[in-house]
Amino acid sequence: IHTGDRPYKCAHPGCEKAFTQLSNLQSHRRQHNKDKPFKCHNCHRAYTDAASLEVHLATHTVKHAKVYTCSICSRAYTSETYLMKHMRKHNI
């Protein structure tokens, strides 16, 4: 039965989030204290939860190769959308 009850409340000042499961609250708390225990073994990135790391790990596959490259600084991206967002930093 889904009661809508969220007994696990975040105690961080100004945060009103509440959760149905303790594990979700624990994961959420890491966002406040910047704890990122889930680290990518391919690069320097780290994440607050395993699900976010899994999404990131997919970017290292051939399917997600960085084929969109900035003509100014040579940074590469997996999609044209990300490249266009980056280009705004160059005021283009």
TrEMBL record:
| GO cellular-component term (any) | nucleus
Pfam families (UniProt xref):
zf-C2H2
Q: Which family does it belong to?
A: Belongs to the krueppel C2H2-type zinc-finger protein family.
Q: Does the keyword Zinc apply?
A: yes
**Which Gene Ontology molecular function entries are recorded, alphabetically?**
DNA-binding transcription factor activity, RNA polymerase II-specific; RNA polymerase II cis-regulatory region sequence-specific DNA binding; zinc ion binding
Keyword list (alphabetical) reads:
Metal-binding, Repeat, Zinc, Zinc-finger
Q: What PROSITE patterns does this protein's entry cite?
A: ZINC_FINGER_C2H2_1 (PS00028), ZINC_FINGER_C2H2_2 (PS50157)
User: Which SUPFAM superfamilies does the entry mention?
Assistant: beta-beta-alpha zinc fingers
Q: Which residues form the C2H2-type domain?
A: 8-37, 38-65, 68-92
Its recorded name reads ZN384 protein
Q: Record's InterPro entries? A: GLI_C2H2-zinc-finger, Znf_C2H2_sf, Znf_C2H2_type
Example GO BP: positive regulation of transcription by RNA polymerase II
